[in-house]
């Protein structure tokens, strides 16, 4: 009898672990465990997203840039960038003149993003991706809150990620906090076909949630079977011109909370290419050879 109970418990635990890891992508295991999982998946991650990525220019980059036609050199946060799909799509647009901070909790995913942008650099010299690949800076940051001051970005993008939080209010509060008044949020709504029934919110409920977090002009558009594309504007108005355009000009120190960074070369023999050092408290952040800031 004991062996039957043991097998039953093992099957139940295996099912729950499989569902947590492969269905919810480790969302309930904590950011470090989740980052470890994404590091393991990073090399094959794009293969599972191929169906939706074929329309990234049409469904993500172009609608966003059309919305930003009156915003010169938009400053964009690509939150949970993964392998950099949105950043890559934006750089492929000939009229994109902005700068992007691409943030993710997984260094492995960011390494893939860096490689993807490097491949774009190796294209023909006339490619817009080659001319502006330096417009993207990569940062690993494990958990909320975001390390940026209020009202920093013209645009905040968060694709296919809200469903992975215990509550959507927490990330939405942070994403709108760092968004400038009148700025644009580009996000997604998990559809009923996604299977995450506990996390699926109907269009009216999702709209109400965005409105409760200070957003208006909400447009929910079918994208692919698992997600709808969502565009919304933050309440209020502000100048579209943002003074700060580099990560070191907007990154808050996790120790003292100041934004005062200097860059120094790493010691010989270390794998990091350089480091950012807080001029206020001396905290140092490693920067990998591929340009990823490890916060």
Write the element-wise H/E pattern from the N-terminal end onward: HHHHHEHEHHEEHEHEEEEEE
Instruction: Give the CATH H-level superfamily of the largest domain.
Output: Vaccinia Virus protein VP39
Task: Report the helical percentage.
Answer: 25-40%
CATH topology of the largest domain: Rossmann fold
Which spans of ≥5 residues are poorly predicted at pLDDT below 50? 8-22, 128-132
Mean pLDDT: 85
Strand order of the largest sheet: 6-7-5-4-1-2-3-11
Morphology call: globular
The CATH class of the largest domain, by name, is: Alpha Beta
Q: Can you offer a commentary on this structure?
A:
By secondary structure, the protein is α/β, with parallel strands linked by helices. The chain has 3 domains: about 1-45, no CATH class; about 50-235, Vaccinia Virus protein VP39 (Rossmann fold, 3-Layer(aba) Sandwich); about 250-295, no CATH class. The protein is about 35% helix and about 25% strand. The protein contains 10 helices and 11 strands. The strands form 2 sheets. Strands 6-7-5-4-1-2-3-11 form an 8-stranded mixed sheet, with helices on both faces. A 3-stranded antiparallel sheet has the order 8-9-10, with no helix packed on it. A hairpin with a 6-residue loop joins strand 8 and strand 9 (about 270-280). Helix 5 (about 55-65) crosses helix 6 (about 85-90). The chain is globular. The model is unreliable at about 10-20 and about 130 (pLDDT under 50).
């Amino acid at each position: 009898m004991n062996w039957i109970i043991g097998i039953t418990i093992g099957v139940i635990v295996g099912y729950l672990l499989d569902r947590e890891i492969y269905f919810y992508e480790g969302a309930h295991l904590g950011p470090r465990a989740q980052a470890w999982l994404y590091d393991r998946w990073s090399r094959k991650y794009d293969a599972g997203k191929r169906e939706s990525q074929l329309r990234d220019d049409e469904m993500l980059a172009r609608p966003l840039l059309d919305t930003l036609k009156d915003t010169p050199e938009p400053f964009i946060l690509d939150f949970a960038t993964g392998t950099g799909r949105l950043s890559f799509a934006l750089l492929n647009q000939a009229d994109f003149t902005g700068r992007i901070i691409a943030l993710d909790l997984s260094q492995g995913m960011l390494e893939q993003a860096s490689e993807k942008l490097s491949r774009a650099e190796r294209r023909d010299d006339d490619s817009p991706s080659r001319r502006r690949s330096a417009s993207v800076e990569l940062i690993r940051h494990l958990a909320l809150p975001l390390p940026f001051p209020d009202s920093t970005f013209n645009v905040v993008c968060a694709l296919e990620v809200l469903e992975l939080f215990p509550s959507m209010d927490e990330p939405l509060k942070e994403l709108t906090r760092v968004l400038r008044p009148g700025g644009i949020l580009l996000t997604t709504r998990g559809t009923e076909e996604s299977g995450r029934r506990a996390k699926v919110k109907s269009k009216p409920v999702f709209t109400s949630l965005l409105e409760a977090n200070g957003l208006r002009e909400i447009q929910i558009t079918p994208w692919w079977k698992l997600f709808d594309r969502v565009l919304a504007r933050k309440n209020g108005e502000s100048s579209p011109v943002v003074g700060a355009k580099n990560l070191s000009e907007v990154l808050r120190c996790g120790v003292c909370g100041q934004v005062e960074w200097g860059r120094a070369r790493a010691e010989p023999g270390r794998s990091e290419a350089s480091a950012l050092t807080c001029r206020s408290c001396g905290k140092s952040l490693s920067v990998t050879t591929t340009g990823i800031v490890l916060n």
